[in-house]
Amino acid sequence: MKLKRTAAAGLAAALTLAVAGCSEDGNAEGFTLDVPDIAAHEAIGDAEGEVNIIAWPGFVEDGSNNPDADWVSEFTAETGCKVNRRIGETSDQMVTLMRSGDYDLVSASGDASLRLIAGGDVAPINLDLVPHFGDLVDGMKGQIYDHVNGQAYGVPIGRGANILQYNSSVVEEAPNSWDVVWEADSPYAGKVIAYDSPIYIADAAVYLMHHQPDLGITNPYALDSDQLAAAVDLLKQQNDLVSEYWALYTNNVSSFQSGTSAVGTSWQVILNVLGDGYDGVLPEEGSTGWSDTWMIAAEPKNPNCSYLWLDWATQAEVNGAISRNFGMAPANAKACEGSPENEAHCEAFHATDEDYYSNVWFWTTPIEQCIDGRTDVRCTNYQQWTEAWASVKG
Questions:
Q1: What's domain 50-160+289-362's architecture?
Q2: Are 50-160+289-362 and 162-288+381-393 equal in CATH topology?
Q3: pTM confidence score
Q4: Per-residue pLDDT reduced to its tens digit, 195-240
Q5: Residues of 134-155 as b/e, b for ≥16 C-beta within 10 angstroms?
Q6: What is the CATH number assigned to the segment(s) 162-288+381-393?
Q7: Residues 263, 154: contact at Cβ < 8 Å?
Q8: By the 8 A CB rule, do 215 and 377 touch?
Q9: Distance CA 235, CA 118 (A)
């Protein structure tokens, strides 16, 4: 599978946002957003016969890519809903496709979900129609990237941290800080791999939160102009150390295997692919991460089949299959039970370890109104981050 998560390019200028009392840990309590008034679906009626889904690779599988990965066929047999899948290559593409009106559901990452909500492209979720929602881990519920005005707009799928990965034959002393990828005197200059996306600016902000506290950064996705400038300066310093920027996970794998890179940002699933000789850690500063949710279109053509899919994909067996196929922590805690395979997968991805994920800042679209609760300054939005990222890479 080819995994690619390139963050969305630009936040709509017309977006009007208001934030009050946001929690610094990413929880959406007190988070208000000026959004179109869209009603949630009230009840599940007769299945329409099909459902159109935009999803990351590995999320919606019918056995055609891998005979061992098929949770679509049984869904269709049980519900009568044929699944029409469109693979999403980037968050930006997913947002554009959802705005076409041709799709019912999307597996949105946190760098796209707030745009979909504020743009009126997705509807609130009627959680009464998703019975397995109660089985999902608490740490993925009520988060700021998909839960606003007291309403859920997403049904969690899975999550993962952006870890510090290293070649243990080159990096002989196990690192516990991101300093090996950020500081100019890193002994691994020219061997550092970095993520290729404007959202990576948040990784610099996480490092600055701990090493330059006078900047006042309390949320890496809420940066005023001075804080963004500091993050950009750090990224430009890192640019001299970087061997490669990656977006496709296969590029990360090949960079480490070839010896081009020895240390840098990665995912647990990539570390698993590399196997012996490589290791990874969540450093002392914490990290960024990603969390995906199913979101339903504001005006879905097939709302009943959509809700049937939400319920189907959220149950433990299917959610577990999706998480193992893609390489992430499942949202349904019961997916960690029932077999040694399930238990081992969840242990590797820290599925129910909230202490671990309490140090992870999940991707959230930067917006002008500061999501850290500040009201005396405007924060920078994603368009500004996109422009800043271009200046980093030259």
A1: 3-Layer(aba) Sandwich (3.40)
A2: yes
A3: 0.87
A4: 999 999 999 999 999 999 999 999 999 999 999 999 999 999 999 9
A5: eebbebbbbbbbbbbeebbbbb
A6: 3.40.190.10
A7: no
A8: no
A9: 30
